[in-house]
Amino acid sequence: MARPGGFEVAEQQQQQVLSRQQERHYRLLAELQALVKALPSACQQRLSYTTLSELALALLDGTVFEIVQGLLEIQHLTEKNLYSQRRQLHSEHRGLKQELFHRHKEAQQCCRPHNLPLLRAAQQREMEAMEQQIREEQRMMDEKIVLELDQKVIDQQSTLEKAGVSGFYITTNPQELTLQMNLLELIRKLQQKEAEAEKTFS
Question: Do 168 and 157 meet the contact criterion of CB atoms below 8 Å apart?
Fold first, then answer.
């Protein structure tokens, strides 16, 4: 019994979509395999054919490219913001030191000679206390920066894991982090290639 014509057309269209996706998958996989060759050999060994094939599948519809782009933009904004906070703190500290220096100088000029040694000793203690406070504030700022950047890494891992990108899950293991960084780099390079190819064809 012959099937209705409309159903056959729909099936053919579905077949074409599948074969286009298959072609795209093979192309992405081939490009990933070529890009992996530039990575350190230890990393190449960790990126099996299966992992790369799964990665190519995750990249098929372009959503992951957009996610990675978004994550990198957030990371750059965060880094810029933290850097400017650190610079701001540094400049505040410089201002405080200059202010204290001028205040000390004025006090010394108004001071009677026989009181000078006492005044200088007190000023030295005040300067050391300020230096200590500055060091402490800088240490706290650096800790805050490290924590915020660590949190960004966790956000990235979690987002990419939820998006089904092979190799991504929340971890602090240095080897796994290196592998994930290399995977991100592969996705980014592939995205650039795709964008260039689109420009060529458009």
Answer: yes
Other CB atoms within a 10 A radius of the CB of residue 64 amount to 20
Q: What is the DSSP string of 123-182?
A: HHHHHHHHHHHHHHHHHHHHHHHHHHHHHHHHHHHHHHHHTT-TT------HHHHHHHHH
- Do residues 109 and 101 lie in contact, with contact meaning Cβ atoms separated by under 8 Å? no
- Name the CA dihedral angle for 138, 144, 145, 149, rounded to a multiple of 10 degrees: 170
Task: Tell me the CA distances in angstroms from 162 to 46, 58, 156, 176, one per residue in order.
Answer: 21, 11, 10, 17
CB atoms within 10 A of CB 165: 23
Q: What is the mean pLDDT of each run of 10 residues along the chain (202 residues)?
A: 64 83 90 90 87 91 92 94 96 97 94 91 96 97 95 95 92 92 92 81 65
Q: Rounded to an integer, what distance in angstroms lies between the CA atom of residue 155 and that of residue 170?
A: 8
User: What is the DSSP code (8-state) at residue 59?
Assistant: T
Alpha-carbon distance of 184 to 50, in angstroms, equals: 17
What is the per-residue pLDDT for 1? 47
Amino acid found at 90: H
Q: What is each CA distance from 84 to 91, 112, 142, 192, in whole angstroms?
A: 10, 44, 12, 29
Two structure tokens written together for 87 = 């610079």
Q: Please, are residues 38 and 30 in contact by the beta-carbon 8 Å criterion?
A: no
Give the per-residue pLDDT at 3.
Answer: 52
Report d(CA 102, CA 104) in Å as an integer: 5
